[in-house]
Write a structure and sequence with these properties.
- This protein is globular.
- α1 packs across α3, α2 runs antiparallel to α3 and α4 runs antiparallel to α5.
- By secondary structure, the chain is an all-alpha fold.
């Protein structure tokens, strides 16, 4: 595993340990996803993120955000695994060919990269495992199985993360 991949893996583990203790896994993933989105879009007023949860490398931070975005949405059954993987690929293509998809017009997106795509897909795969595990528990307790829609359009990000 490359040094950059090791950094992202370490950061993923640290975020999971330090954020949202006492919450369900899905709620913890949602908290992390929102915090990373706000941080990367310059909207962290009043919020503190300790230095050990950050990297000076923007591509690493983008990969980390993509990981938790994908993991949360698949784990929460908002998007299917395949739907999320199509969105991840589409986002990389849009970043390369347009239109401008910045959420904060003052902060450019990172260039498209296989590195970010890899971590987004890895997050989607982890989210799928999370959902599968939760559904096994649901089934054993006679609760309904959670299933994502077959297809859903990407979020608009209006007031996202607030």
């Amino acid at each position: 595993m490359s040094k950059k991949n090791m950094i992202v893996k370490t950061l993923v583990d640290k975020w999971l340990i330090k954020k949202g203790n006492g919450l369900t896994l899905v709620k913890r993933l949602e908290v992390i996803k929102k915090e990373l989105y706000l941080y990367r879009n310059g909207r962290t007023a009043g919020r503190t993120i300790t230095r050990d949860l950050l990297s000076d490398d923007e591509e690493v931070m983008a990969a980390l955000e993509h990981y938790f975005f994908a993991r949360y949405h698949v784990a929460a059954a908002n998007y299917s695994l395949n739907n999320m993987k199509v969105m991840i690929l589409s986002y990389q293509l849009i970043k390369e060919h347009g239109p401008d998809v910045r959420h904060n017009k003052n902060i450019p997106t990172t260039p498209p990269s296989t590195f970010q795509k890899f971590w987004g897909e890895r997050g989607a795969d982890a989210g799928h495992r999370d959902l599968t595990a939760r559904n096994l528990v649901n089934k054993s307790k006679g609760r309904p199985i959670e299933e994502p829609p077959l297809f859903r359009l990407p979020p608009t990000f209006t007031n996202y993360g607030t």
